[in-house]
Amino acid sequence: MKRVLFAIFCIMALCSLLLVNAGTIKAAEPGYVRTAYFTSVMPTIDGAWTSETEWTDGEVTMVGEDGAFTTTWDLGGVSVTTRLLVEFFSDNTTDAGDYWQICFDGDQSGGTAPQASDFRIDIVGHTTLTVYEGTGSGWTVVTTPSGIEWYNTVSDSPTNSTSHWILEMTILNNAVALSQTRNFRLAVYDDNSTAGVLAWPPTDRDVPNVWGIEYYSQNPIPESFGIAVFVILSSVAVVVSFFFLRKRSKAASFSSRKTGEINYT
Q: Residue 216's Cα: distance from chain center in Å?
């Protein structure tokens, strides 16, 4: 057993070498850190996968069991642009109460209530976008900045062949005062479902201290990133499986000798 645990420890240590160092992380929900990689393929913002590769240059993060999102970034002209894809796999109906929601704490000032540096973007009913800014105790509606472009449609995609809601968005960072590292929260809601709000992280939208962390990598996403993690996790499974199969084989052999049966293994 000690050897198995040591092997697993070594594998997980190797896994940690694949992760990018996020630097100093301020108050945020533990365990929720993600990377926005540099945009390699420029997406068309039309609410659908225009090509099968336009969002493969970003890290995919699950939102509950039925949603997923990815972000990338690039420097266009004089401003940094954040690009966002969100897919809600279990929703393909149009309901007035449906919403997409993105929260940013651009300077990571945190807090137990939204501050003046915090912004919230709601898209309700798949038709209406509203931007909110923190007041120190809650949210207030502000004029929508011109640096936000978005579109959502019901379509299939390379990640799910069943038609579902897809949101694509670009945000100029100076529109909502985003920095290179920020507290971040994303939520989706289907008014026609009993599942409730699905969010990353699944915490309070009004408490920046418990949002996740998102930061920029100046490099494109490593081509082997997904394969490497898959291989490592598979290796852990193989080691554990080998250990238990070996124990089972020994137990079966002992049982055979005890009952007088012939063991052919």
A: 14
Mean pLDDT of 114-119: 94
Q: Which amino acid is at 89?
A: F
Q: Specify burial of residue 52 (Cβ count, 10 A radius: 0-12, 13-18, 19+).
A: exposed
Instruction: Select from 77, 137, 130 the least CA-distant residue to 101.
Output: 130
For 131-143, write each residue's pLDDT tens digit: 999 999 999 999 9
* Cα gap 79→166, rounded to integer Å: 26
CATH code of the domain containing 125: 2.60.40.1190
Spatial contact of 55 and 39, defined as CB atoms under 8 Å apart:
no
Q: How far apart are CA 149 and CA 169, in angstroms?
A: 6
21 pLDDT exceeds 80? no
The number of folded domains in the chain is: 1
**CA 31 distance to own-chain centroid:** 12
